[in-house]
Design brief:
Elements lengths: L2 H14 L5 H13 L4 H5 L7 H15 L4 H5 L1 E4 L2 E4 L12 H14 L5 E5 L5 H9 L4 E6 L2 H13 L6 E5 L10 E6 L6 H5 L3 H4 L4 H4 L7 H10 L3 E10 L5 H10 L4 E8 L5 E8 L1
The protein binds S-adenosylmethionine and glutamine.
């Protein structure tokens, strides 16, 4: 069977299973298996696979048809300007999260800090912390997570990107493992409430870690704690930047406003779909 036909049939299987990006996923998975570029299939559509390769590919397609995210099947996901290792212990970094990186960089530029101290709470794969460490070479970055397995993955990613010397990884609940004060604190905390969690796409709910997504009943639990506690870890004029869910703008702004004694210049930035995505405030 030729590559052309193999991709055609796999695409059909994925479509029947209701996978929206069927063709792309089939190509990405085959390229992963053959360790080649997807372009190779366009250039050489009449290539064939060995029996073993074919069997392996069928297994991958069956798993994808069962809803398993492509990133967990390939063990990697592109984020910012690099590729991160991922596994089912970590949330797959979302393109939306690049917006908090952009916003953080714009704050760093405006403030013209020298050797800023930056803290990323709930670092997951390390996505935000690594992007900031890479873009701000003189920054000293601390990244935390409550999960040991998650931190292990983040550390592997740091080593692969040769950023392990720019980042300190700490395990613990929110600020508990952290000392001193920071110029900037960033976080993409869990923010899915109980009701919304039940309605998440099956690929997310059945495969991604609940601890990375669920935030109590309302989805606001982490914002309450982060906004209230962060001022004790920010230098004067230090910034707190938080990713928010598309429908949480009013509520999270209200939490900042309730702490007006601590924060000023509260502002919300949208993502590229035009949805509220990042909220920030500066410590007075
Ligand atoms: N920063 C990563 C990203 O943007 O892709 C991961 C974000 S994920 C939505 C939230 C992360 O917070 C998870 O890695 C989870 O393990 C971690 N987490 C959950 N509860 C926590 C807590 N109480 N303290 C620290 N980290 C926590
Ligand atoms: N944006 C993620 C999702 O769509 C949620 C991430 C989070 O809870 N911080 O599932």
């Amino acid at each position: 069977m030729t590559v052309r036909k193999i991709i055609f049939e796999a695409t059909q299987k994925l479509e029947e299973a209701g996978i929206p990006s069927a063709r792309l996923d089939a190509e990405v998975l085959l390229a992963f298996l053959l360790r080649c570029d997807r372009l190779a299939f366009i250039k050489n559509p009449d290539d064939t696979l060995s029996k073993k390769q074919l069997a392996d590919f069928d297994r991958l397609i069956a798993r994808r048809a069962g809803g398993e995210p492509v990133a967990y099947l390939t063990g990697r996901k592109a984020f910012w300007s690099f590729v991160l290792k991922v596994n089912p212990s970590v949330l797959i970094p979302r393109p939306d999260t690049e917006v908090i990186v952009e916003e953080a960089l714009s704050v760093v530029r405006q403030e013209s800090w020298i050797r800023p101290r930056i803290l990323d709470i709930g670092t997951g794969s390390g996505a935000i912390a690594l992007a900031l460490a890479r873009e701000i070479p003189d920054a000293s970055v601390t990244a935390t997570d409550i999960s040991k397995a998650v931190l292990k993955t983040a550390q592997k990613n740091a080593a692969a990107l040769k950023l392990n010397h720019s980042i300190v990884f700490l395990e613990g609940d929110l600020f508990e493992p952290v000392g001193g004060r920071f110029d900037m604190i960033v976080s993409n905390p869990p923010y899915i409430g109980a009701e919304e969690y039940e309605s998440l796409p099956a690929g997310v709910k059945n495969f991604e870690p609940e601890e990375a997504l669920r935030a109590g009943q309302t989805g606001l639990e982490f914002y309450e704690k982060l906004i209230y506690q962060a001022h004790g870890y920010l230098k004067e004029n230090g910034w707190l930047l938080l990713e928010i869910g598309a429908r949480q703008k009013q509520e999270v702004r209200a939490i900042f406003e309730a702490h007006k004694d601590f924060y000023e210049r509260i502002d919300v930035r949208e993502d590229y779909a035009g949805l509220p995505r990042v909220i920030k405030g500066r410590r007075r």
